[in-house]
Structures are given as C-alpha cells and as structure tokens.
Amino acid sequence: MEQLIQKCKQNNPKAQNELYNTFAETMLGMCERYTHSKEEAEEVLMNGFVKVFSNLEQYKALGNFEGWMRKIFIREALNYNKKFKLKWVRLSLLEIDGLEKNNDYSETEYLLNKLKKLPKGYKTVFNLFAIEGYKHKEIAELLNITENTSKTQYRKAKMMLQNLCKDEYRR
Predict the structure, then answer these.
(1) What are the per-10-residue average pLDDT scores of the chain (171 residues)?
(2) What is the dihedral of CA 143, 160, 162, 80, to 10 degrees?
(3) What is the Cα–Cα distance from 167 to 114, expressed in whole angstroms?
(4) How many CB atoms lie within 10 A of CB 165?
(5) Domain for residue 162, yes or no?
(6) Which pTM does this prediction carry?
(7) Which of 4, 76, 139, 140 could form a disulfide with 147 if both were Cys (CB 3.0 to 4.6 A apart)?
(8) Do residues 73 and 144 share a domain?
(9) Which residues touch 92 (CB under 8 Å, ≥6 apart)?
C-alpha cells in the first residue's frame, strides 16, 4: 500500500486509478449512509477522492490509511449536507430504549435500508455515533451543534428506526 501511495503522490494516473478501485466501493457505501440518494453519494465520493489526491502529502503513514481517508469522506459528506442547508431541529431530550446491535449481515443490511429513510439530521448523527464511533462531543464540534442536540438527534433516530421496523413487522 505504501508504494501505491507514493506513486499517487507523484500523480501517477495508473496508481491513482488503482487506489480509487481499491477503496471506491467501501467509501461509496459510507457516503450513502450520509446522503439521500445514490447520485448524492456518488457526488460526495468524487469530491472526496479529489480531496484525497490533493491532500496525500499530508498523510504521514502514522496510522491506518483507510481511516485517514474515512475522515476526509465523512467531512466531505457533512460539508455536502451543510451546503444544501441541512437544518438542525432542537428537540427535547427523551429517554428511549436503544436498538440492539446485531452482527447478522442481513439484519444489518435491513437496518441500513431503514436508516436511509431518516431525516438527514438524524441519519448523520446516528452514522457518526453508532457506526463511525464518534463521541457526542466530537459530533457537536463537527456539526456545529450542542452536545445535547447530538444526543437528542441520536435518540430520536433510534426511536424512528424502531418505529420503522415495528411498522413493517405489523404488516
């Protein structure tokens, strides 16, 4: 991987294409979690790769390269949402039961499909907290919201996901 990155730093088109092909599917899946459509996700993906290639000199090989890229793509998705005026609603805090984590792929895929139905604010916070592992304080800083708003958005997202799953089960 290190040789590939070095070639990309030298603007080698074949190396850049190889790097893109190696990570595009994974990064697209992540982008889809933050956007409402495949087209939006693809736009974020392209903008993300432009940023990756133009900022490769900043990667110092001190950590995981994919993790470094993920941060770029998450920020790109968040910036995309801000650009289209993602509005945050301040909601009162409610105590609710959480969704159980399950490693079964089919159930995970099912939940990810349900996640696409959430409003952007809920979906963004849920992704950052439950899937990407950010803390509410970090989310608040990234999104320029309060920590309580992040916690509330997360709770509301879980409740909405639960309701979406319950509604489908009742049918």
Answers:
(1) 90 94 94 85 93 91 88 89 51 33 54 81 87 87 91 89 68 49
(2) -40
(3) 11
(4) 15
(5) yes
(6) 0.60
(7) 140
(8) no
(9) 152
